[in-house]
């Protein structure tokens, strides 16, 4: 009995340990505590999820003689000589001669002169990098390295965690080891039957194996368990968040009728089969009086999502209620008004537009009509979130390009109509695995093909030497009365570019990156990044190159009224060349625009590039898109070149999204920079499809078993959801 109580007590202590402050651990105080907090590690659980960046695999370490040329290898050897050289100003090279019983290995560390003092003769060093041969010796430029002490045993796998000033990798290993001892008896948050069905290792074993694996196969199994946990908890959190927002609300059962029939009749073309399916799915959700609609309408550029959305808006009018359509920019909101307004009027549906540029008197009149129920549909930007915008009966919220809004903004608009259905739309193609994980709480309707093919667009990637081809295309377009876009990554010279897409291959390759992943600092001699074009300078330059054309800017920093005027002038042909940031990425529909030049194409994600080129070729004349790039290959095919070549080859946005996913391997593929965004740190969205599907299905099953996760079997999951995702879930879970 005593032994049983002791075991139970140990299990409870181990289960509670992840929530404890990190200072409860041995060795954590003073500068080490400060260092951990700088890394974002506040709790013991944070530390356990701070997994190694890489591993030094001594189970497969080579002697110098046996290390294979042209491959990445781990070698353990002794420092024989250390030399600091300065081959040119602001360039330092620390050359280290390593020896073992089989030979000599020359290692070079660039721009890290301090290593000359740290690496003393006779010390043991483990290096990992690509083995080369030159000047009679095997060499390894810029390897990862680790100084070894007598405690490091051969034949083991040594983790290398991310650290910061005041915390060495050796100290991090000690602290992590202490944390693992503290949770050695942790109770698994997954029900045993579920874990057995999915063939997952226990939580305690996974945490130990991810930090100190016996072999790499065990490490891979641990990562799979942690990836599954991450996905399952995210799915549960998303669904619980929806439940929290829908507590005590009564769903609205819409009744499509005459307005919808009239709108279908007013459409200038018959809906495609895919559009018809999407409309049927949306209307079925809206007619359901038992549950509120949460649906994602996903369609590539030009696939006709607007027409589908109009059908939903007409169904709202048939129910004598109201709908709000919120777009991320005034340009896109105005575009909706231009495209949807005439269709709604033909169907007898009243509507209005509210943006930051709406005159005060007009806004006051619109808001009054909305509150009185005289308007069925309101289009707008974040202006719709203002306190003075009140609905008489809001039953449908439509949000376009929803990943550009924070979770709070979406919920704030939805709160103006408790029980309102939600339709979110995006023209950014999303790989299926990403849709299942990040949008797993939404039902999905997909439109892959354009109902009206249009003239289309061809894409050509150019270097600076071939700029004349792009300018020649612009000149030819101007001669035929057509228009052109020029897209720049920055607004003004001196902008930092912090808002640019996080893409691979954007920076010039640096073969001289230092050991331990340290890059060269500012002014260190690192190859200069290519110049980033900015709208302000480009406008002046293009006015010189094309004196016969009117060239004007369009950026997000302009006032709403200025942006509207610029778009209107471009649409009317008063402006022939529009120099813009990615504010034209969505919503700008000018059929006469036939040429686009994108500067610094390597600095944009594939999804953004695909969206941008979708702005041309929308009329009867084929469009041409020229992507200018400074990407350097350094004698090999770079990631940037691979991405841009794919853009040339295909116009299939979904194929490009899958490629982008394979190249980037991370959860911010859509640029989730907004509040409430999600980053998946353990999941490989390209390779983990079975895990993603399993977690998605299991989340649904668990919530069917216990809607609030309050059952005994799911209580640990409920606690972990609250711990990771905050108090918004306590309302549903009862925590």
Describe this structure in words.
It is a single chain. The chain has 735 residues and is α/β, with parallel strands linked by helices. The protein contains 24 helices and 22 strands. The protein has a seven-stranded mixed beta sheet, with no helix packed on it. β21, α19 and β22 form a beta-alpha-beta unit. α8 (216-245) packs across α23 (715-725) and α9 (258-266) runs antiparallel to α11. The longest helix is centred in the N-terminal third of the chain and has 30 residues, at 216-245.
SSE topology:
Layout: H1 2-16, H2 30-38, H3 44-48, E1 54-57, E2 72-88, E3 91-100, E4 103-110, H4 115-118, E5 124-130, E6 132-134, E7 137-141, E8 144-148, E9 157-160, H5 169-182, H6 192-198, H7 203-211, H8 216-245, H9 258-266, H10 273-287, E10 294-299, H11 305-318, E11 322-326, H12 330-346, E12 351-354, H13 360-372, E13 377-380, E14 394-400, H14 407-414, E15 421-426, H15 432-438, E16 443-447, E17 457-462, H16 467-479, E18 483-487, H17 535-545, E19 551-554, H18 560-572, E20 577-580, E21 593-598, H19 606-613, E22 623-628, H20 639-649, H21 653-664, H22 689-705, H23 715-725, H24 730-733
């Amino acid at each position: 009995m005593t032994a049983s109580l002791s075991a139970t007590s140990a299990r409870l202590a181990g289960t509670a340990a992840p929530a404890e402050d990190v200072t409860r651990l041995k060795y954590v105080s003073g500068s080490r505590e400060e260092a951990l907090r700088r890394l974002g590690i506040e709790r013991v659980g944070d530390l356990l999820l701070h997994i190694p960046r890489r591993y030094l695999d001594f189970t497969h370490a080579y002697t110098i003689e046996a290390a294979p040329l042209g491959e990445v290898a781990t070698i353990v050897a002794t420092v024989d000589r250390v030399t600091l050289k300065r081959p040119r100003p602001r360039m330092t090279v620390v050359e280290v001669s390593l020896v073992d019983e089989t030979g000599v290995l020359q290692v070079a560390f660039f721009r890290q002169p301090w290593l000359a003092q740290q690496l003393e003769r006779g010390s043991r060093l483990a290096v990992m990098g690509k083995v080369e041969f030159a000047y009679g010796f095997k060499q390894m430029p810029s390897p990862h390295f680790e100084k070894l002490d007598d405690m490091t045993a051969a034949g083991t796998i040594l983790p290398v965690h991310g650290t910061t000033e005041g915390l060495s990798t050796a100290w991090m290993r000690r602290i992590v080891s202490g944390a693992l001892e503290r949770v050695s008896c942790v109770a698994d948050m997954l029900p045993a039957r579920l874990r057995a069905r999915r063939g997952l290792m226990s939580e305690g074993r996974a945490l130990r194996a991810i930090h100190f694996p016996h072999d790499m196969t065990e490490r891979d199994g641990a990562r799979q368990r942690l990836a599954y946990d991450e996905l399952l908890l995210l799915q549960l959190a998303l669904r619980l968040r929806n439940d929290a927002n829908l507590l005590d609300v009564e769903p609205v059962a819409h009744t499509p009728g005459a307005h919808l029939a009239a709108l279908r009749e007013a459409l200038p073309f018959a809906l495609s089969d895919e559009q018809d399916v999407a409309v049927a799915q949306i209307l079925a959700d809206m007619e359901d009086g038992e549950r509120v609609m949460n649906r994602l309408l996903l369609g590539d550029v030009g696939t006709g999502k607007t027409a589908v959305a109009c059908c939903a808006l007409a169904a709202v009018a048939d129910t004598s209620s109201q709908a709000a359509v919120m777009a991320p920019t005034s340009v896109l909101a105005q575009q909706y008004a231009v495209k949807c307004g005439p269709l709604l009027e033909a169907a007898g549906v009243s509507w209005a537009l509210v943006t930051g540029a709406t005159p005060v008197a007009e806004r006051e009149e619109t808001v009054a009509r909305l509150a009185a129920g005289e308007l069925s549909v309101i289009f707008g930007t974040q202006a719709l979130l203002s306190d003075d915008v009140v609905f008489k009966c809001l039953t449908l919220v439509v949000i376009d390009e929803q990943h550009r809004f924070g979770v709070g903004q979406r919920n704030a608009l939805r709160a103006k109509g408790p029980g309102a259905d939600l339709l979110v739309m995006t023209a950014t193609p999303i790989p299926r695995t990403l849709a299942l994980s990040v949008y797993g709480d939404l039902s999905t309707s997909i439109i892959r093909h354009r109902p009206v093919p249009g003239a289309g667009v061809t894409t050509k990637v150019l270097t600076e030497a071939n700029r004349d081809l792009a300018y020649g295309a612009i000149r030819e377009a101007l001669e035929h009365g057509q228009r052109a876009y020029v897209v720049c990554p920055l607004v003004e010279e001196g902008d930092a570019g912090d808002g640019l897409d996080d893409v691979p291959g954007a920076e010039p390759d640096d073969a001289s990156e230092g050991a331990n992943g340290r890059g060269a600092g500012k002014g260190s001699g690192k190859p200069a990044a290519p110049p980033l074009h900015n709208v302000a300078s480009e406008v002046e330059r293009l006015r010189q190159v094309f004196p016969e054309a009117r060239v004007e800017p369009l950026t997000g920093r302009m006032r709403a009224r200025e942006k509207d005027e610029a778009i209107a002038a471009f649409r009317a042909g008063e402006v022939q060349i529009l120099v813009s940031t990615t504010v034209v990425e969505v919503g700008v529909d000018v059929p006469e625009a036939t040429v686009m030049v994108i500067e610094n194409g390597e600095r944009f994600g594939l999804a953004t590039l695909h969206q941008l080129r979708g702005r041309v070729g929308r009329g009867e004349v084929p469009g041409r898109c020229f992507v200018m790039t400074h990407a350097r290959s350094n004698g090999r095919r770079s990631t940037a070149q691979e991405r841009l070549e794919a853009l040339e080859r295909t116009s299939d946005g979904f194929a490009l999204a899958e490629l982008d996913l394979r190249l980037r391997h991370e959860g911010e593929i859509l640029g989730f920079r907004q509040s409430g965004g999600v980053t998946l740190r353990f999941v490989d969205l390209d390779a983990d499809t079975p895990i993603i599907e399993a977690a998605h299905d299991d989340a649904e099953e668990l919530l069917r078993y216990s809607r609030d996760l309050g059952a005994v079997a799911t209580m640990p999951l409920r606690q972990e959801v609250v711990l990771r995702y905050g108090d918004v879930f306590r309302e549903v879970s009862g925590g």
